[in-house]
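Give me structure tokens for this 120-residue protein.
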Amino acid sequence: QVQLVESGGGLAQPGGSLRLSCAASGFPFSMYSMSWYRQAPGKERELVATIPSTDGRSNYADSVKGRFTISRDNAKNMVFLQMNSLKPEDTAVYYCKAYRVWGMSPFVYWGQGTQVTVSS
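Here you go.
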């Protein structure tokens, strides 16, 4: 059974930090690119950061460049999002996504999300 379980969300003050974690199981984690998305109330879900399955450059939304860092631990089947210098506009539900194309078919899995609130 495929599972992606996010954790680490909560309340942070502007300028503060949070570290999100996503624990994966039920699929070959190291073969999947992993991403963090977020969705704020009344807005569409947006891509925050992606880390490839193999060595390569991670990509970030312009709004988080220089503040957020995505990383992964293939031995533990986990992906992380270190969020620094948080702003109120970072408030959203953050989702973990796994993605791979095998043959001609895409395989996509989503977590249930974790709430991040940035407020003083």
